[in-house]
Write a structure and sequence with these properties.
mainly alpha; binds heme C; 12 helices; single chain; 0% strand; Cytochrome Bc1 Complex, Chain D, domain 2; 2 domains
Amino acid sequence: MSKNYMTLMGLLMVALISTGCSKGSDTTSTSRSSAKSTASAPVVDPALAFKGEEIYNQNCIFCHQEDAIGKPGTAPSLTNKEFLSIAPLDFLTRTIENGRAGTGMPPFGHLGKDKIEAVIAFLRSHATLPDRIKEVDSQAVNQGDPRFGETWFHQICSSCHGPEGNGYAAGGTGTAIGKAGFLDTVSDGFIRVSIKEGRSNTRMRAFFGPKGLANLTDREIDDIIAYLRTVPSKN
Ligand code: HEC
Ligand code: HEC
């Protein structure tokens, strides 16, 4: 079964769902276009997602691959379900507009707001998990100790994310989580949930609790976040 066919089926399902409750979705799309605020519900307009796929294929596919499944060491997955369930609109928009300085992610501000919005709709049309963006984004700020975090980071994370969290540049498969381009656009909740739950079908595993790869506690995960927050100022 081809991937295009799957995408088409996905779009059809979105279309069916939205016609099924057209009143509800009409209200949402009106409020969405007038409110810059939220970030929260990835309600996807199928026509916009369709347009976004074309823009994606012209600008992003080279690195992020077909259906944005990513490629280890080249670019992360943008259609990973855990990622989509926690990635706020503002984070996606800013990352695409500004890129991530010092990494392979170039800025795409020249595309303009409408095209960026369409690409995001395309990415979000792949979402399969409930939207947890608001909950995750409003989680408490870490209470960790960066000195412990530094130790955990070097024992567990740096082999993939690089010794200063500088990402692919250090030869691993993890992204540049020690750089401002990432840290300045994400909440502590986003980092925390990424570490606890991982991202399925990528090399990023869940590191929390007895089922996690490293059996980290909440406290230890906060230590790592506290450490990461100190990294950009050191480099
Ligand atoms: C085996 C390699 C590996 C290890 C070990 C690893 N990661 Fe990751 N991590 C990844 C990959 C790969 C991704 C991006 C997923 C993708 O490519 O789609 C990622 C993504 C992340 C993200 C989200 C970054 C973003 O750009 O959105 C965070 C935060 C993160 N990892 C933190 C950690 C922390 C903290 C540790 C140590 C406890 C850790 N990782 C250990 C491979 C790893
Ligand atoms: C030249 C290769 C390249 C191209 C083209 C590219 N990207 Fe990226 N992108 C990357 C890399 C590399 C990263 C990870 C940067 C890092 O290490 O933090 C990334 C990260 C991202 C992230 C953050 C993902 C996360 O896990 O936090 C988003 C969102 C993103 N890209 C969207 C796009 C979109 C949309 C396009 C097309 C308009 C695009 N990218 C084009 C290489 C690319």
